[in-house]
Amino acid sequence: MEEYIKNKQIEMLKLIETLVNIDSGSGNKPGIDKIGSLLKRKYEEAGYTIDVIPQIKYGNHLIIQHRDASDPEVLILAHMDTVFPKGTALERPFRMEEDKAYGPGVIDMKSSLVTLLYALKALKEEGSVHWKNVQIILNSDEEIGSPSSKNLISKASIGKKYALIMEPARKDGSLVSSRRGKGNYTLNVTGRAAHSGIEPEKGRSAIEELAHKVIQLHELNDHENGISVNVGLIEGGSSVNTVSDHATAQMEIRISETDQATSVEEKMEEICSRTDVPGTEITLEGEINRPPMEKNKRNKQLLKRIISVGDELGIEITDTSTGGGSDASFTSAAGVATIDGMGPVGGNAHSEKEYLEISSLFERTLLLAKVIENLSE
């Protein structure tokens, strides 16, 4: 298996280059579907059956399973979308410098798409039957919260024992054993317009009311316990000499434990149930769209097995917690033992400096193949 992966590294880099040079931002359905079609052919050549789940707004999702598999125990998730707008790949295409490769989405997660494919091909080449014990979902909207695929992931989680999430390993090579959950909310305030010079007393400022609410909401922050509330965008009013009759705030909350969601939402609703500026009205809309991935007993046990595999390969495995979200939240919340960060090593995702450590391709492809083998025995 090791020899096969070593001999395929140039081939893997060529495929990564092809994928990176295809724009596939979450809103770019044609680009995502181009990547999906390419990967569909690769998996079909390897002996897998692919169900294409068509989407109108987003790229199509792919469910991949070996034709001989009946009840695969390992669920593997990877996404085809990136955060970059159309034209980015043309502006700064894939390139390699020393031991690093650069380009939009190179580590999050075009390289992971390739290491997953070749880990399974390596198992097949070795004559192992364990490459059949997986079900793979390649979705198209992870970067925007998986609005059209989270139900697909939750449904696929039923009956699975393990979930491996192909987000990249951290810069130091750590896997991800816990993630914070998050929710997005919109606060709308309605006031009464009036000329600020002629009859300001007749106005009811929506902006003033919103200012009160922003301060009160930010007082819910409890960073020590992993709770953060952030009003990131505000807008309102129509002119500088008019008392504003409308104002809006967009905010995000992050939580570390599932039980925190109810408590934070109740406090938010309480704050928004009353006004500080008489005559204004408030509406609050939103929900938790990713539950937290907690480092629970199931996930710890899976991590222990992966560490054991790493020890056998001479790879030191460490783990970490992160505030960022991923589809690991859905599988973990469904009761499936989950570990994230199973992709290659890199960093600076979502930026112009995003990179892949080329030397990690061999190590992490081998690790993934061996973990699949271990979990299937």
From TrEMBL:
Gene3D superfamilies: 3.30.70.360, Zn peptidases. The active site is at D81, E142. SUPFAM superfamilies: Bacterial exopeptidase dimerisation domain, Zn-dependent exopeptidases. Its cofactor is Zn(2+). Keywords: Hydrolase, Metal-binding, Zinc. One of its GO terms (molecular function) is metal ion binding. Residues 178-277 form the Peptidase M20 dimerisation domain. It comes from the Bacteria. This is M20 family peptidase. It comes from Bacillus salacetis.
